[in-house]
Amino acid sequence: MPGDLFSTHLAVLPVLLPAFTAFALLLIGDHGGDAQGSHGHRRLRWARAIGIASAALGLVLAARLALQADHGALEVYRVGDWPAPFGIVLVVDRLSALMLLLSGCVALPVLVYASGGWDAHGRHFHALFQFQLMGLNGAFVTGDLFNLFVFFEVLLIASYVLMLHGQGRERFKAGLHYVVLNLAASALFLIGVALIYALTGTLNFADLALRVPRVEEPEAAVLQAAALILLVVFGFKAALLPLSMWLPATYAASSAPVAALFAIMTKVGVYAILRVHGVVFGADAGASAYAAQPLLLPLALATSVVGVLGALAARTLSRLVAWLTVASVGTVLAAIGLFGSAAWSGALYYMANSTLVIAGLFLLAELVGAQRGEMAGRLEPAARVAQPQLLGLMLLLAAASNAGLPPLPGFIGKLMILEGALGHGWVVAVWIVVLGVGFLTLVGLARAGSILFWNVRADLPACTGGGASPRLLVATLALIGASVAMTVFAAPLQRYTEAAALQLQDRAAYARAVLGEQGGEQADTARPYRIDRPLPSGGER
Amino acid sequence: MSMEFLVATGIGWVTACGIYLLLRGRSFPVVLGLTLIGYAVNVFIFAMGRLWSGAPPILIGGPAVADPLPQALVLTAIVIGFATTGFVIELALRGRHEGGSDHVDGARPGETGDDAEKAQR
Predict the structure, then answer these.
(1) Helices (H) and strands (E) in chain A — how many of each?
(2) A21: which of A54, A252, A261, A398 fits an S-S bond (Cβ 3.0–4.6 Å)?
(3) Which among B41, B95, B113 has CB closest to A176?
(4) CATH number at B3-53+66-120
């Protein structure tokens, strides 16, 4: 039955679809950097069509998975049908499905935007874009820590090349920093993973959630050290404070569609922190419970403050947006650091909105810059832009949503976080930072908007081009419109994020779904350190 | 000296050298540092399966069996490390070509990339 086949393998499709699309795009080949060549141009058109169709299909798949996950059952896919703690599992719960949907929602408009010309500035843009999507989706669905590392590497290798897309000296300089820092972080990731394996004998999230509480002092101290090493790694990807300085330079140096796609990449770090430190090292982790809590909340609040100060000091629009990325990640991580289901629900809602808005803002920054002559995105008086009403309105909507003005979704998300903080020891700090950062975000974006649209130099000729092409405008509008749609569908979305947060805290149900009868308390470890123990029945050939 | 002591100090020494090189200003030592850290991490993963001698990582009914999983993890990590090292070398070469300097910031502190390019000519 083809229908059965489809639903059996649904969980692995978000990884396979971009992978096979990327292979196909590599086989089609590239236009060789010559955008005007007629033969090459036909190939590029094919690559665009295939890439966009695949991204659209991926979005549909993600929506289907999200609807399915909303029934509350976990979709567990055992690769090769090996039983759970020994084989590779992919798990789609509400959180994974939400992240898949989010990455689909960002990827499709960004790819449409990139097809408006950016993809012709270098080679193999479309194939790399699909590999990046594969890494992102894989990181969101994987059920064990080592595959999280593998998918991190897949998305990073794609991102290294995408970041350099279009080339240029500034991009190479920022690119080298980005690559070297990420390789160092990957080495730390492996150390953390190896330590966790040494102490628990498993890397499967479900199995870890059962075994971590059983590790007692003094081994628990080493396990906590491993958890904190992983916090450094994920904090680096998510741009948590002392490790966030790479982000503005890298994102501002990337081309606009790549920076917009990278808006979801920081969220992989946030997702991993939630999965590992929120759940595995969360409330029920015995001696290692709340390993990350003393650091996460203060650092996240500081990240938010530094991010918004950077935005106030930024001299170009794209750098301003990059700093706002840092600020919003700080707010999300602060909510995760509160370790409560209400706050987590707010974090997920706010993260979804801020990702869409920031991706839209990166695209918008380039649209505005393209109409300002030589000044481009610099926040200085320049010639009048060709489409002040349209672009100004988009910037206004995005700014209001990012800053958290009612009735836009940024407001709803922040309200959920503020409510979630009630009763927590840090409630005053969280309220001051979240509200203050919202206000300063508004100040920063209002300053940028008034310079860009009102502070016009009359001595310069106005932009004579006919304005941005419809394709670019539609893509940018789609991202900002998706954010506005989050207000319209706020009630079902909020119900979904609340259910997702509760599902995350139900470790027993997760373990039952993943490990089944084979694993969990019944299964003995596969590790051969005790020689006297009988062999597990599945281990004999 | 025990095998554990030798392996542990070896990992520590290689990591220390790697970190020293990673903090250098030119891209070639940085790449070497990354490579050394990669080696140290690979041995570290291997050691996390505990050190055994004369124990094959496969169940053949003998008295001792080494843990096969870290060895599988190490293989994956080696492959990924190899690929990324190749990429970062190419990137460093291109950066040198584009910016006219092999400094990781594109130019040594105090001079711009243009100066370096002029000096080279």
Answers:
(1) 20, 2
(2) A54
(3) B95
(4) 1.10.287.3510
